[in-house]
Structures are given as C-alpha cells and as structure tokens.
Amino acid sequence: MTDTIRVLTFNCGYRGTGVGDYGVALAAALTATGEVEHRQVTGQCTCEDRVGASWVDADAHCAYTALERLGRRVDRRRGQWAGRPHDNPERSVSGWLRGLRYRKQIAVHRPDVVHYHLDRNYYGLEPLSAIASGRRPPIVVTVHEIEDWGPLARDVLSRVEIVLVHSSVLADRLAAELSVSENVKVLLHGAPVPSTFPSADARTGIGCFGHLGPVKGTRYLIAALRRLASEGLHPLVRFFGNYSDDERLAVERMLSRHGLLEQARFEGFLEDGEDFHRAMESVAIVAAPYLESAGSGIVSYALAHGAAVVCSDVGALPETVGQAGRLVPPRRIGPLMQALRELVTDEPLRLRLGRQGWERARSSFDWPVIARRLVGLYREVISEPGKKSFSKVHLRTERSGPVSIGRSHR
User: Fold this and answer.
1) Of 27, 187, 392, 400, which has the fewest Cβ atoms less than 10 A away?
2) Which residues partner with 38 through β-bridges?
3) What is the pLDDT of residues 104-142, one digit of tens each?
4) Which residues are CB-neighbours of 339 under 8 A, at least 6 positions away?
5) How far, CA to CA in Å, does 349 sit from each of 79, 196, 302, 325, 363?
6) Average pLDDT, the chain
7) More confident residue, 407 or 185
8) Parallel/antiparallel/unpaired status of strands 139-143 and 237-240
C-alpha cells in the first residue's frame, strides 16, 4: 500500500476570480488520488477592504489576523511615505508576521511537503522566506506570475526544492531575471474537463473573460471586429469577468466609436464556479489576444469546455493550445481578424477545433492529470530531502507545430 503524503498548502483557496476555483479543484484532485492527506490553511488576501477578523481552515477568504492587519496598516503608511500607491504589494511587516503564523502551522501539522502558491499581488515573498529558513519539510512553490522581483526572490526561490510555473516562458524568465533554473519545472495550468464533449447547440458569439486592461489586448480585438463589420460580419461579443467600471466605460467608448456597441454584451463577474463553466460552454469562440500571458488559466478552461480558441502567440498560450486553436501574433489586427473571420464563418472548423481542445485538455491538464504529476513531484522531494539537483523538466508540455496565422512575433 502506498504511503500517504501529508501536504500543507498555503495561499490557494481563492474563488470568484474567473478561474477562481483553482485551489478548490486542486485540493479535491489531490485528495481523490488516495495518496495525499491535504490540508489547506489559508485563502485569498488581496484587498484590505475585505480582510476578515479571523480565518479558518480550507475555505478561508481573507486570512489576516488582527496583528497582521495592524502590520498591513504600517506597510501602507510606509508605502505612502515612499510614494507608492496604497495597494502596492510591498508588505514586508504584515508578510513577516504571516510567515511566523505559517511556521506555527507547519510545526502543528508536521507535513511531509509544504506547497506554497506565490503571486506577488496577493501572497508575498516574506512569508515564504520565513518558512524556507531553518529546519523545515521540503517546499514546492508554484509561481503564478513573475514581477520585477529583486534579491529576495532570487534568494528564496533558490532555497526551495521545486519551483513550478505554468509555462516554459516563465521558467526562462526565472532563469534570466533571477538566475533560478536548477529547481524549476513546468506544469500547465489545470482545468476541470467535462467527461463528455459539451454540446455546441446553444453556443453563441465570441467570449472574452477576465479584466479589460491593456494587457488583454481588447483594443486590438475591437479593431479586428471593425474590419469584420466592414465585410458584413457582426458576431456577438460577450465580456465576462472582474473588469472595473472604468475599464468597461473605456471599452464601450471604443465600441461606440466604431458603431459596434449594439453587438456587445457585458455580462459581468461570475463568482460562482458553476456559472463560470456554463458561460464557457455558452460561447462559440473564446478570444484571448493578450499582449502577455503567464498562467493561461482562461485558455485552459476554454479548451476544456470545447470552445474554439483564438489567442496570441505569447507566454504560456502556445504551450497550452498546442494544435487545438488559432495562434496569432500580438498587436497584429490583420491576422486576428482573419482568424476570427475563419471561425465565425466556418462552423465545422469551430466544432473540430473545439473537440481537439477538449481532447487535449483531457490528456494534458485535466485536474486528475495535474494531481498525479504533483504527487510524483511530492514523492521526489520526500525521497531526496534537501537535494537541489533537479533539472528543468517540462512535464507534458507541447510546443510542436501549433497552428499560426501571420508572421510570428518572435
């Protein structure tokens, strides 16, 4: 009988952020392997306006203690003195206090492996630095984004056993910017994949998910839609996500300027995971003309739910899509318009790409697949504690022969 691995996970309980059931789905998949006793002790802490007075295991949303809230106020004041905005993620005082609490949790639960999810905007380096010091179990860190981190990131990430990223592009950036490469491994962003191919009967329009900031490439999508309109094509465009009022107004103004507002629907924030899955299965095409991409969660979910995908050839997206979608150079309106026109007018092609995406998701990044690979990594670090000789290994990523339109940006 396989020995059970006790895993203590920090910072992966977030919900309601587009693909916000990531932590819940990952925990369930790990438990379902029968090889992991999983404990998740903290949740999302992104906004001091939403911090709670206490926190609980597994389903915590904002896990600040009273002392950490005081530390956050100190961090905010220090940021104001330094000329930084109040929501700047430099949280050295509250982060250090949280690190002490994390160390206490490790001492109480005595896990075989600690899995820490790192995103500078949400969960900082200071707690990770605290738990990576002294005697401790092996640590696996998932880096969801790479920011302009400095010496602290280089020091901390070089001391943990494994650093997981969602694309080889992030792995290369870690190597180039932080000189961290020996313990880096690539694991695609997981997604829940339906057991049968979702029906295409009720699918309508082009779906865009997430915020509407410049990095999402929305202005290029609107320019492509304008060219489609000049050819008599007016596909419905549906915007889902946590976009701000200012972002929505800016997009509405661009749409109005080109006479496209009538074909747009702003369907808002989908906090419930089931609503998000239904939305993915209700659109015919998912457009992701991003200027950069690290985690590619939206595209993973789109493929899993059988939507035809058009996305930029940047970051994690080519590895995620493989040959199951249309890749276009970023900031190039012509190739984006051509890809959209092809999918809008060719229903058999949409269905074929949708099925290819669903099959790719089942084999490459369905949550049970991701969980099995993680269990293998956990056993690797347990069997060789303290050994830092891991090479950068791409776990089932595919970069061979994606379908591209137009000149590559590279």
Assistant:
1) 400
2) 7
3) 889 988 999 999 988 665 557 888 888 898 889 999 999
4) 310, 326, 328, 405
5) 52, 19, 16, 10, 21
6) 80
7) 185
8) unpaired
Determine phi and psi for 366, rounding to 5 degrees.
Answer: -60, 145
Picking from 197, 120, 234, the residue whose alpha carbon sits closest to that of residue 358 is: 197
**Distance of alpha carbon 344 from alpha carbon 163, whole angstroms:** 40
Q: Tens of pLDDT along 322-341? A: 889 999 999 999 999 999 99
The answer to whether residue 19 scores a pLDDT higher than 60 is no
Instruction: Give residue 258's region: left, alpha or beta (phi > 0; psi -120 to 50).
Output: alpha
At 49 the pLDDT is 32
Interval 158-172 mean pLDDT: 89
b/e for 216-251, b at 16 or more Cβ within 10 A?
bbbbbbbbbbbbbeeeeeebebbbbbbbeeebbebb
Q: 281 with 259: CB under 8 angstroms? A: no
Tokens matching residue 132 = 């990576």
**Residue-level length of the chain:** 410
| Distance between CA atoms of residues 27 and 31, nearest Å | 6
Complete edge-to-edge strand list for the sheet that includes strand 206-209: 264-268, 237-240, 206-209, 285-288, 308-312, 326-328
pLDDT reported for residue 76: 66
Residue 266 pairs with which residues in a beta bridge?
239
